[in-house]
Design a protein that fits this description.
It comes from Alcanivorax profundi. This is NAD(P)/FAD-dependent oxidoreductase. Helices cover about 30% and strands about 15% of the residues. The termini are close together. With about 500 residues, the protein is α/β, with parallel strands linked by helices. The protein is built from 17 helices and 20 strands. The protein has 2 domains: about 260 residues, FAD/NAD(P)-binding domain, CATH 3.50.50.60; about 150 residues, FAD/NAD(P)-binding domain, CATH 3.50.50.60. Strand 1, helix 2 and strand 2 form a beta-alpha-beta unit. The structure holds 3-acetylpyridine adenine dinucleotide. The site of 3-acetylpyridine adenine dinucleotide (N01) has 22 residues, from helix 5.
């Protein structure tokens, strides 16, 4: 039976199920294939591969990590057009890598997973899908990432608005903004990229800012034909270039630990704002009042000059109410609006965005209960009580300073090592010891206390409501790579199946 045929049956059984077809799921799939494991499936809730870079297509969408770093180390692309590529080029890269490794045939599209349950006797997981089907697997990898559920603010009267509402992650390219009155809410990484484009198209644009971001100049450059030719012909040059980018990004971990270093750069960045924005009052409002790095540092050369346009206004009052054709602000002023653009980010707390995604592990274990206070994992990858369940970009693996793909590759290497060791032992499941996970998280939270994220005087999506940071890795990325280089056998419990049904692949439905 071919892989394609297998994934069409109602209930099937595979060795590994991957939930999510973005960079993480793709990396996992490629490494499984390289290890000779074709008995897997990617369950993708959308109708295309690429994750973030499939869904986020707003005007100006681009990556703020350099392309030669923001790509797989094992799938170099000497032809990146710019230092920071735009969404379409990254999307094309992902499609190219997918085709090269023949991953599409292992993918089931429009397959939303709604729950996962472990049978410790059979040592198998059952994944429930929204269409009513089920999938049985020995291992599953949650690769959906933390930035895929759009966050919609709940402003008073929002339901009465008669115009168009667009979230940055769900852009409607058919909606023509020309001549329209647009009110854009939010000034995060997404907004600062689309605002300059919307300003050019709209009749009038109001940018509603709750907290100004720190923005540094974008060290943009286009790669010349000669550079690309050299990168292709002399791979060592491309690798050196990647190494240089890696090290310069890694250096940015220092101010994270020492906010005083971060503050040294603030006067120059304030001058950058005043240099780029002509109106003094507007410039003053754009200056953040918290330490650089506390929220994600953004990069743009186009955002600040947008406020010099006659058709753009900055509003720093809160939104009080939305009416049929307008937005009312806390000072009582009212702005007519044909369109609301929400650059309001994502629901990043897995306790909220996974609240309807029931996961049960060993007897008596329910992830929603175990994560009641905070999402916790070991190395952001395994969770005690949930054998053979892995996560990519799980708790405390996000980055404020370098490429998340570096972290994904480290995690995938670790998962492959776990699966390999389990098979070599002839066991059916592995489960990280609770005390190992607890020790790891206690230390991590201790180390986070001194960082700019906790002491920088801001709130951000890096923190839960109680201030605990379950999002970011507070060290150099090579330290994460070292920690995940291989699985320490003593960190885990290794168990055979009680029922003789763990020989996955032996009896397919
Ligand atoms: O979302 P955000 P994003 N009333 O959460 C504001 C990645 N990314 O989509 O700061 C008024 O950062 C909110 O205000 P405040 C990257 O990891 C990468 O922009 O909370 N305002 C904030 O200004 C990034 O960090 C790239 O006070 C409200 C904004 O909305 C992550 O995605 C590009 C509000 C949300 O900013 C998320 O970025 C894009 C309300 N009720 C995204 N609610 C690149 O690589 C929220 N806000 C370039």
């Amino acid at each position: 039976m071919t892989s394609q045929a297998r994934i069409n049956v109602k209930t099937r059984r595979v060795k590994v199920a991957i939930v999510g077809g973005g960079f993480g799921g793709l990396c996992m799939a490629i490494k499984l294939r390289e290890a000779g494991i074709d008995d897997f499936v990617i369950l993708e809730k959308g109708d295309g591969l690429g994750g973030t870079w499939y869904h986020n297509s707003y005007p100006g969408a681009a990556c703020d990590v350099q392309s030669h770093m923001y790509s797989f180390s094992f799938e170099a692309n000497p032809d990146w057009s710019h230092r920071y590529s735009e969404q379409q080029e990254i999307h094309d890269y992902i499609q190219g890598v997918t085709d090269k490794h023949n991953i599409r045939q292992f993918t089931r599209f429009n397959a939303e997973v709604t729950g996962a349950h472990f049978d410790d006797q059979a040592a198998l997981w059952t994944l429930n899908l929204a269409d009513g089907s089920q999938l049985i697997c020995q291992h599953w990898v949650l690769a959906s990432g933390p930035l895929h559920v759009p966050s919609f603010p709940n402003f008073k009267g929002m339901e009465n608005f008669k115009g168009k509402i667009i979230h940055s992650a769900q852009w409607d390219h058919d909606y023509d903004m020309s001549g329209k009155k647009v009110v854009s809410i939010g000034t995060g990484a997404s907004a600062i990229q689309y605002v300059p484009h919307v300003a050019q198209e709209a009749g009038h644009l109001t940018v509603v800012q709750r907290t100004p971001p720190w923005i540094i100049p974008r060290d943009e450059r286009a790669y010349s034909g000669m550079s690309k030719w050299l990168f292709r012909r002399v791979p060592a040059l491309r690798q050196l270039h990647r190494l240089r980018l890696y090290l310069s990004n890694e250096a940015r971990v220092m101010p994270i630990f020492n906010p005083r270093i971060a503050r040294l750069a603030e006067p120059a960045l304030k001058a950058f704002i005043h240099y780029q924005v002509k109106d003094k009052e507007t410039a003053r409002k754009l200056v953040p009042n918290y330490t650089l790095g506390c929220k994600r540092i953004l990069i743009s050369n186009a955002y600040y000059p947008t406020f010099n346009r006659d058709n753009v206004a900055l509003v720093t009052e809160g939104v009080k109410e939305i009416r049929e054709h307008s937005v009312v602000f806390s000072d009582g002023s009212e702005q007519q609006a044909d369109c609301l653009v929400l650059g309001t980010g994502f629901v990043v707390d897995p306790r909220i965005y996974m609240k309807d995604f029931e996961i049960t592990g060993l007897p008596g274990r329910r992830l929603q209960d175990d994560w009641k206070d905070a999402a916790q994992a070991y190395l952001g990858t395994t969770v005690s009580g949930y054998p053979n369940m892995f996560q990519l970009v799980g708790p405390n693996t996000g980055l404020g300073h370098n490429s998340i793909i570096f972290m994904i590759e480290s995690q995938v290497r670790y998962i492959m090592d776990a699966i390999g060791k389990l098979d070599a032992r002839g066991d059916a499941w592995l489960d990280v010891k609770q005390e190992v996970q607890d020790r790891y998280n206690d230390k991590l939270q201790d180390e986070l206390k001194g960082t700019v994220w906790q002491n920088g005087g801001c709130t951000s999506w890096y923190q839960q409501a109680d201030g605990r940071n379950t999002a970011l890795w507070p060290h150099a990325t090579f330290q994460f790579m070292a920690r995940t280089w291989n699985v320490n056998m003593k960190d885990y419990r290794w168990q055979p199946a009680v029922k003789n049904s763990a020989a996955v692949g032996a009896a397919r439905a």
